[in-house]
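Late entry, evening session. Most of the bench is empty. Finally got around to the prediction I had been postponing all week. Sequence below, unchanged from the version circulated by S.P.
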Amino acid sequence: MKKIFVVLNLLLLMIVFGYSVIKEEKNLKKATFYIKTVPVDPRSLIQGDYMVLNYDIAESARMEIGNIRKGYIRIKINDLKIAEFIRIDEEYLPPSNNEISIQFQKNGSNIDIGVNSYLFQEGTGNKFQKAQYAEVIELKNGKLRLKNLLDKDFIKIK
């Protein structure tokens, strides 16, 4: 009886793990777009293995956000696949005409769009200082996944 229980638990674990892998593979195949980065606190590079990211769309949103604590930044994806700020919305709007909504949360003066840090191998931070764009994937309901950091020529920084 114990063996059957163990085998069933292992089978269930394998199914859940397999589903997670398939879901992640699907996400990585989704279309990507780029968000222009803006200068960040250089101390985050000195601290070790991550850097804090900030984006031009978040800076534009900060000017219009008012008292809204949570909401959506509506962006247009131009012909170069670069995100351009349009407006702030309190409700999620589905994608249309190269426009999508990005979920945000206001924390004090910071606008968090869910991809505000990048992890890298310790000691390799200097090469990421030249990052000009973040390559992102839209997941579900305005959530983003950071895929890569790119230089000014849209070349992946490794």
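Two things to note before I forget:
The CA atoms of residues 77 and 83 lie 5 Å apart.
Helices lie at 2-28, 43-46, 56-64.
Will write this up properly tomorrow.
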